[in-house]
Amino acid sequence: MLKLSNPMRLVESVLPILRWSKSYDLRTAIGDLIAGITVALTLIPQSIAYASLAGFEPQYGLYASFVGGFVYAIMGTCPQINIGPTALLSLLTFTYTSGTNADFAVLLCFIAGIVQLFAGFAQLGFLVEFVSLPVVSGFTSAAAITIASSQIKGLLGLKFSAETFISTWKELFVHIGETRMQDTLLSLFCCIVLMGMKALKDIEIKSVINDKNRKGMLILQRFLWFVGVSRNAVVVVLAAVLAYTVHEDKRDPLILTGSITPGLPIPQAPAFHTTVGNTTYTAVEMFTHLGSGLLVVPLVGIISNVAIAKAFSNGRTLDATQEIVALGACNLFGAFFRSFPVNGSFTRSAVSEASGVKTPAAGFYTGVIVLLTLALLTPYFFFIPRAALSAVIVCAVLHMVDTDILKKLWNTSRLDLIPLLGSFVCCLALGIEVGLICGVVVDMLLLLYYHSRPPLDIVYVNDGVLPAHFAIHPCGGLYFAGAEQVRSKLISLRKPKNNSIPATALETLTIIPDSDNNGTSDGNNIANGNHIANGNLSNGNNNANGNNVTNGNINGNFIRSTELLVVYCDAVSRMDYTFLQSLKMLVAEWSRGGRVFWCDANPLVKEQLLNVLQDPHFCDAEQLRILLAGTLSEDSQVNISDTQL
């Protein structure tokens, strides 16, 4: 979201509906209506299931489903995105509100909206970039496995309480003997139907030459696709009908959802005090209980939403800041209608894209259908079997496990496997929220490691064009983490290892005057452009004629003694204070027998160096040769440095 001087453009950037509604016509509306209805068939059963995953009654999933559609239609920029309950945020909501009541989830939604709005208006979207793709992949894969594991008890008809991945499997082995055969068979049937119907939408019917048959094949293709995307609704309805048929007043053969509160939610402010059992919680106690969730939940929502928006931008420029603001508004206003935290869903966005959505207005139509469902159908939710809801959740999260990235990272950047596997293992072993933090910490450590090893191109130059000197080409920003590494590497040029040129050769840069014909070596005494790695200079086997240098040993008469270091600053953007102090020590040590030149420094770098060094010597590429030659003409017995401190 840009800072705009035109007030109307500013309003349109915050409320994109003012921009696209000007060209909204009947054809566009029909496309959005079809997409809205199709998405609703996916959203409604998913929201009921995700409410169960979050630990609440089914109607809370529907409460969280309609406000986001309305608000995003006004403030969103990506037509495909549908805001509502998702498996990931439902799991996080359960993690932070388990053992409490819905007031905690509503308050979490409210605070998440405020944090996201603040992040958007304060232009803090760049913070998301500190969470790398490997960490996100490891986090979502672990979350998918945790979610699927938490639904095993629903698939088998078991009843036990567990909050983490490890505790779930422990309780499962304890209660495995209590498995209910009816619920197990129903869940197995639902999983088979869901996977089979999902495959229907991917069937491609071969085209035929006859136009009449081609039209029929096209209709059949669209019908199969529609059946495939509405699979969740079909399975839930069929399971509910089956449960109603076999229902008994005293003892039900299936575990059902049970009685729920019918009707629409009454708009009200989030509760800042609540009672759970016999315990009353104040606002401070509620915030304390939610803990890190006040930051983790909005952060995960932002990461997911921006990633989905990028995936469906189709080459268009994405206003990530506006997406963050829109998501924050969805959560903020949703909290007044008893919603728990929501964000965009990749599955529903893909359905919307395939349905031919045109504008974000499709969210209006989806929201209306959800409201009608709340008003008319909630009494019938009593008969929805929990096994069917568990099957819907498990089949929905299977695609979240990303195994392809392992091969990609192995072939491109194996070091990135560390944060991926670290976040994955920590999420499973320590919990979702702790695992995400661990992944970010590993990312930060790798980032610091990279900064502590900045790329340096150190060359000994003796090409006959410029007087012989050492040259360094740093690039990018130079920061505290790499300060000591850079200084040590440059100082090591004065103290090379035994297998390189002797110390006397580096401490005495030999210049043979042209008048000494017996000692002339045509400027090639030391190989042209020898690279130095870790302070070691390659031996002198590449010398032109070897009269004065043989196997790295210096011969002949030396009449000039000096050391020159040229730092090319054209690719340096800035340096922090610690790095500047390290340079100060470097110049002090180098000035004992030589000089340091700063070539092609930009104004910011010049200003920084002037504030730290005394009379640093700046020049451009054209002036460099003159300055180097002038330095060599001085009396070698005088120890002069124009960067003395």
Automatic annotation (TrEMBL):
<feature type="transmembrane region" description="Helical">
    <location>
        <begin position="130"/>
        <end position="149"/>
    </location>
</feature>
<feature type="transmembrane region" description="Helical">
    <location>
        <begin position="104"/>
        <end position="124"/>
    </location>
</feature>
<keyword id="KW-1133">Transmembrane helix</keyword>
<keyword id="KW-0472">Membrane</keyword>
<dbReference type="Pfam" id="PF00916">
    <property type="entry name" value="Sulfate_transp"/>
</dbReference>
<dbReference type="InterPro" id="IPR001902">
    <property type="entry name" value="SLC26A/SulP_fam"/>
</dbReference>
<keyword id="KW-0812">Transmembrane</keyword>
<dbReference type="InterPro" id="IPR011547">
    <property type="entry name" value="SLC26A/SulP_dom"/>
</dbReference>
<feature type="transmembrane region" description="Helical">
    <location>
        <begin position="417"/>
        <end position="450"/>
    </location>
</feature>
<feature type="transmembrane region" description="Helical">
    <location>
        <begin position="29"/>
        <end position="50"/>
    </location>
</feature>
<dbReference type="GO" id="GO:0016020">
    <property type="term" value="C:membrane"/>
</dbReference>
<feature type="transmembrane region" description="Helical">
    <location>
        <begin position="290"/>
        <end position="312"/>
    </location>
</feature>
<feature type="domain" description="SLC26A/SulP transporter">
    <location>
        <begin position="31"/>
        <end position="418"/>
    </location>
</feature>
<feature type="transmembrane region" description="Helical">
    <location>
        <begin position="70"/>
        <end position="92"/>
    </location>
</feature>
<feature type="transmembrane region" description="Helical">
    <location>
        <begin position="362"/>
        <end position="383"/>
    </location>
</feature>
<protein>
    <submittedName>
        <fullName>Sodium-independent sulfate anion transporter-like</fullName>
    </submittedName>
</protein>
<dbReference type="GO" id="GO:0055085">
    <property type="term" value="P:transmembrane transport"/>
</dbReference>
<feature type="transmembrane region" description="Helical">
    <location>
        <begin position="324"/>
        <end position="342"/>
    </location>
</feature>
<feature type="transmembrane region" description="Helical">
    <location>
        <begin position="223"/>
        <end position="246"/>
    </location>
</feature>
